[in-house]
Specification:
Layout lengths: L1 E5 L11 H15 L3 E7 L7 E8 L8 E8 L3 E7 L21 H19 L3 E5 H5 L11 E5 L8 E2 L14 E2 L2 E2 L1 H8 L2 E4 L2 H6 L10 H6 L4 E3 L26 H16 L7 E9 L5 H7 L3 H4 L1 E9 L1 H13 L4 E4 L5 H10 L2 E4 L9 H7 L4 E3 L3 H6 L12 E3 L5 H15 L2 H13 L5 H19 L3
Parallel strand pairs: 1-2, 1-6, 2-5, 6-7, 7-11, 11-12, 13-14, 13-16, 14-15, 16-17, 17-18
Antiparallel strand pairs: 3-4, 4-5, 8-10, 9-10
Length: about 475
């Protein structure tokens, strides 16, 4: 079985959010099963490859010339990079100076999709796996596509653009029409053989009007073609027993000592004395989706709860400014590092905190909560998407609890969950039980990868079934 896997992000080559980590983790885990999977990525910055072969790709006249490079990269293995005018940028999606989206993102990723379609015709994979709107247009360029799987990592981004683009898709352009605009994602939802939502609960949420981002009816019409498969994390990277970025490695047997060393390092970095306050960490993109306004709203309550927050993230200028203002107003309970993403610091925040906070407005799957729990850090989270699939509220289920889910997805709910976390962490027996469950759960990609392989097999079999 040969899989052609197209994505706009792939860690560590192009990383903005969870898409990069999910794509990289799935590709690596599928390769470990000996199934052949070949990722295709835009050539954002001329990444060097070993044993490189390159060739011109036949493209529509409006798209201009394109070139593919196939070779080996030390971090991701075999890969194809696609270059064409306008794709090379310092950031895949936004101007780093203004944080505004590149105005030609529609054309950039529809062109990339046209290139993926041509590669699919050349390479004849058994399955074409598309990810999010950036690759969804591919099916508008294939008259006889291979069995195709579309993964929706987040439904909030659909690539909506001017209706004039409908004339660029030669195959069933009507599928990409959405009211008076063109919508790449809806075209793939209507055309793909199978659709994956990145957690079972998210697969249910996208069918509801209030959480389906306008796609609930379209996805509902696909019936059993829609499945939910939870993402995993890379346990070769997110594993405290081998994590050399920490002051001391640890596993469940010595979790208390390991986390104590990490906590002291965090407090020293923050410039705080250890007053035994509940130490809460946040590692997040600073965007509306992630509920950073709730973290800001929580700040005035932290002293009363007996808690402090250490935050790492980068994102939109307004939310970044708001976070910095809150940290300046409440410096004894909120420290924020917002200049850039610092991965070693992220590891330390997962290890050294008492709890991790993830108050997302919506969260298709989420990776950070699994990373935190792997480090023995229970998570406070809103009860949305994959957070419901991965966190069991300790007060709702004392036998299986791993964290704290908000009863309402708003500031009162977050304040309540934080109060409950402070009480539970103060109980050594309850804390150890949550830590053990989180640290002994298999968060790896092993099971999700096998579920994807089984989906590929079913998709191929359904396509080949006599009509």
């Amino acid at each position: 079985m040969k899989i052609l896997f197209a994505s706009a992000e792939l860690a560590p080559l192009a990383r903005v959010g969870g898409l990069a980590e999910a794509a990289s983790g799935l590709v690596r885990a599928i390769r470990a099963t000996a199934v052949e999977i070949l990722p295709v990525l835009p050539d954002y910055e001329g990444i060097p490859l070993d044993h490189e072969q390159s060739w011109e790709i036949a493209m529509p006249s409006w798209a201009g010339p394109a070139r593919a490079r196939r070779g080996e990269h030390p971090d991701v293995g075999e890969i194809i990079l696609v270059d064409f005018p306008g794709i090379a940028r310092p950031h895949p999606y936004v101007d780093p100076v203004t944080s505004e989206p590149w105005p030609d993102n529609d054309g950039r990723f529809i062109t990339f999709s046209a290139a993926v379609a041509e590669l699919a015709q050349q390479l004849e994979p058994d399955v074409l796996h598309l990810n999010d709107w950036h690759t969804a247009s591919t099916l508008g360029f294939l008259s006889n596509p291979p069995p195709t799987v579309l993964t929706i990592h987040t439904l909030g981004y659909q690539g909506v653009t001017d209706a004039s683009w409908l004339s660029r898709w030669p195959i069933e352009p009507w599928k990409f029409a959405w009211y008076d605009v063109a919508n790449p994602l809806v075209g793939a939802i209507r055309s793909a053989d199978a659709i994956v939502a990145v957690s079972p609960n998210y697969a249910a949420e996208v069918l509801r009007p209030e959480t389906g981002m306008g796609m609930h009816d379209e996805l509902g019409r696909r019936g059993d073609a829609l499945v939910g498969i939870r993402n995993g994390i890379d346990v070769s990277v997110w594993n405290p027993s081998i994590d050399q970025t920490l002051p001391a490695t640890y596993d469940y047997a010595n979790v208390k000592e390991g986390k104590k060393a990490a906590r002291l390092a965090l407090l020293e970095r923050a410039g705080w004395e250890d007053d035994r306050s509940l130490l809460i960490s946040v590692v997040s993109r600073l965007v509306d989706q992630k509920g950073m306004d709730l973290i800001i709203g929580l700040a005035p309550y932290l002293r009363g709860i007996g808690a402090r927050v250490l935050l790492l993230g980068s994102g939109t200028p307004q939310i970044t400014a708001d976070i910095r203002a809150a940290a300046a107003t409440y410096p004894d309970v909120l420290v924020a590092e917002t200049d850039s993403y610092d991965e070693p610091l992220a590891h330390l925040l997962f290890a050294g905190a008492d709890v991790f906070a993830m108050p997302s407005r919506f969260e298709p799957c989420g990776l950070a909560q699994m990373q935190a729990m792997a480090y023995g850090t229970p998570t406070i989270a809103t009860a949305v998407g994959g957070l419901v699939d991965t966190i069991v509220d300790i007060d709702a289920d004392r036998q299986r609890g791993t964290g704290f889910l908000t009863t309402t997805n708003d500031l009162p709910g977050l304040v309540d969950a934080t109060h409950r976390a402070a009480r539970s962490i103060g109980s050594p027996q309850r804390r150890r039980a949550m830590q053990k469950r989180g640290m002994t759960t298999d968060w790896s990609w092993t099971v999700p990868a096998q579920q994807h392989i089984e989906l590929y097999e079913r998709t191929i079999a359904a396509r080949n079934k006599p009509s």
